Amino acid sequence: MAFRGPKVWLWRWRRNPLKRRADAVEAWVVLGAWLVTVLAGVLAGLTATRSVEDGLARERVEWRQVAARLTQKAPGSASDHPATFSGDRVWGNVRWTAPDGTAHTGQVRVGPGSSAGSAVTIWTDPQGHLVTRPATAAQAQLRSSLIGALVGMSAAAVPFIGGRVLCGRLERRRMSRWDTEWARFGPLWGRKTS
Fold first, then answer.
1. What single-letter DSSP state applies at residue 99?
2. Is-contact 134 63, C-beta < 8 A?
3. What parts of the sequence cross the membrane (predicted)?
4. How far apart are the two ends of the chain, measured CA to CA in Å?
């Protein structure tokens, strides 16, 4: 490993007689790519976070608990599942009335062996369709933060990769030019003077 000396900040913009136009272009490409990467990531992440938070908050406001009734006995029996396994649930058919007075049916998870006509609490949207329980405020905040972070990183990857590809092309072009110049001047250095 070669000794490079102390790190020089902003070396790409310092005056140097050996610096070529391609070096300055690469410096601006790197700076632009980093700025766009940071801005795209932050803006996309914040926008996605806000959108998810708003959607989940709307669900908490609009979705309602409704009392439904089992239309038939649920499969299984309570004796098959001791109290220690109270988390075990089976699918049961239920009926409920939407806010507009229309009757709806669907399937929800209920305790095994629940009798027909048993009351079951379900969640519905404003149209009376069956939905899951809405996320709490804490769950919504966590979910929106995670989605925002993923969207932000994904959005930031596009300009970052684009900048890396462009810098790679500039590097290959610079190396090609150096090879051409070396082929022209290299043999002159090998000649001996008498």
1. T
2. yes
3. 146-167
4. 37
